[in-house]
Amino acid sequence: MSKESQEVKFSGFLPSLPKEKLLQNFEEAKQKIDVESEDHKEIWEEFSKAVTGCICEIVFSPKISNKEDSDKASALLKNYRDDALLINPKFFNKWIYDFRKRFSSLLDFWKNEMVAKELGPLWTGDFELFDRFDDPEPGKFYQLAVCESPCLEEVVSAVSTASLKKISLDNTLADYKDNMKAQKDIDINDEDAFTKIFTEVREVLWKLIFDEPALSETKAKQAAELLWAYKVDACFRSPYQYNDWIVTVRDELVKRKFVDFWKIVVDQELGLIGSKESDYFDDMDDPEIPEFYKIGNDNLKMESK
C-alpha cells in the first residue's frame, strides 16, 4: 500500500450515528478519494469496506427492529450503491450477494428495504456495463428461500408498472431519475425514448436557470444537481447533444451575467464531455474542454466591464 492510500482514513462510519450524520460523513469521505490517483481502486475498496461494514453492523444488530435504524441502513446502502454504479459495480455486486447470505430472518428489512427499494445487484437496468452474458439477473437475487414468492412478485410488479411522467419544476431531479429508471425497465435499448427524456430535461433546466431575471440560491442548487445527473447519463448515451447544448447555456449565462452559476459549472466541471468521461470520444476528436471554460471566463470579464 502506498503512502497516499495509507493517509486516507475512513473512520466516520459509526453505526450509532444518526442517519443525517452518517450520510454527511459518506459525502465527506468520498471527497478524500482522488479519482486520478494510481491508488484509486485500492482506496475505493477501503472506503467500500468501511461503508459496508457499517451497514452490516446496523442491519444485523439486535436493534434492527427499530425503524430509524432500518432507514439509516438503507439510506447509506442506496448512496453507496449509486456511486458504485460508476466506480466499481462488480465489487458492489460481489459484496451484495455475501450480504444476502446473512439473511435468515429480518424479513421486514429484506422486504421493505432491499426489495421495495431495489438495493440488490447492479445490472443493465442501472447501467449498460453488463451485457447479456454477465448480467446479474436481479430477479433471481431477490428470490430468498424464506420469501421467494412475495419478493419476486414485488420485483415483477415494479417492472411491469414502470411509466414515464412529466418532469415537474418542484421535483426535477427525482422526476428525471424516475423517468430514466422507468425507461430502462421498459426498454433499455429504445434510444428515441431516452432522447425525448433528455430533450425534456434540457427544457426544464433552461426554465430553472433562465426563467427569472435573477437566479436564486435554491434554484441554482436545484439546477446544478439536475445538470450533473443529466451530464452523467449523457456521457453514455448522447454526449454530442449535451456538448452542443451546454455551449448555448454557457453563452446565455455570460449574456445575463449569471456569474455565480457559471462558477458552479466551472467548479463542478459541468461543461463539455470529453474522452475522460465518455468512450464516444478519442484523442483525435476530444472537445476543447479548457477552451470552453476559457471562453466563458473571458467573455464574462468583457461583459462586466
TrEMBL record:
Transmembrane segments: none annotated. SUPFAM superfamilies: C-terminal domain of Ku80 (SSF101420). Residues 173-288 form the Ku C-terminal domain. InterPro entries: Ku_C_sf, Ku_PK_bind. This is Ku C-terminal domain-containing protein.
